[in-house]
Amino acid sequence: MDTTPYGFKTLRVDPDSLDGTFTTRDGRPIRCRLIQPEDGPLLIGLFQHLSPESRRRRFNLPLEHLDPSRLVLEARHLADVDNRTVGGAVLAFAGLEESAELIAVARIGRYPANPVSPEAEAALVVRDDFQRQGIGTALMAMLALLAQRMNVETLTASIQADNEALFDLLRSLHLPLQRHTSHGETTISLQVSDLPKPQM
Questions:
Q1: Contact in structure between 190 and 3 (CB atoms under 8 Å)
Q2: Whose CA is closest to 120, among 148, 145, 153, 144?
Q3: Does residue 1 fall inside a structural domain?
Q4: Which residues sit opposite 102 in a β-bridge?
Q5: How confident is the model at residue 3 (pLDDT cuts 50, 70, 90)?
Q6: Which pTM does this prediction carry?
Q7: In a domain, 82, yes or no
Q8: What is the CATH number of the domain that holds 135?
Q9: Do residues 137 and 128 touch, judged by C-beta distance below 8 A?
Q10: d(Cα 71, Cα 79) in Å, to the nearest integer?
Q11: Per the structure, how many domains does the chain have?
Q12: What mean pLDDT comes out for the span 87-92?
C-alpha cells in the first residue's frame, strides 16, 4: 500500500502495550500510547488548545462557551474507557518525555448497548499547530491495532462534507471507502483490515 512517508513510515509500535513513536514531517518526535482513566486533564488541555474550527470538526457542534464543570465531566467520561470493549483511544504527545503535551487523539467507540458489535465509530482530532504533519496518518494505523484488539471489523464516522483535510488523509492511504453525503454531512465506512499496519 502506498502511504505518505511522514508519520506512518516512521511509526514503530510495541504490539503488547500499543506504545509507539514516530517522526513528523518537520522532524519532531511523537510518542503514542493508549488512553488511561486518569488522562481527563490532558484531554481538557488539548481541547483548550483547539481552534473553534477544529472543535466544530471534531464534535459537530459549536463549543465556544462550554461550562468548565461540564468540560471536566466530559473529559472524565472520555478518558474512562478500557481499550477492550465499548471504547478506546490512542493519545499522541509532542515529545518522548512523560511531561510532553497531548497534541492528538484517535478514538473508537461502540454503542454501550452492543459491546460486542463488529462495528464502531471512529473520531480523530489533531491540535491546529500540528496538523498536516503526518500525525493523522500514523494515528489511523494505531487505531487499526486498537480496533483489532477490540475485535472491531468496521469503522464508521460522520464528518462535515467540506472537511477536506480528513478526505485528503484518507485519499493518501488509498483506502476503499464507502461514503454517503446528505445535508452537508458525510458518513464513511471502512474495513479495519484495509488500514495500514505499522512495524512492530
A1: no
A2: 153
A3: no
A4: 93
A5: very low
A6: 0.87
A7: yes
A8: 3.40.630.30
A9: no
A10: 12
A11: 1
A12: 97
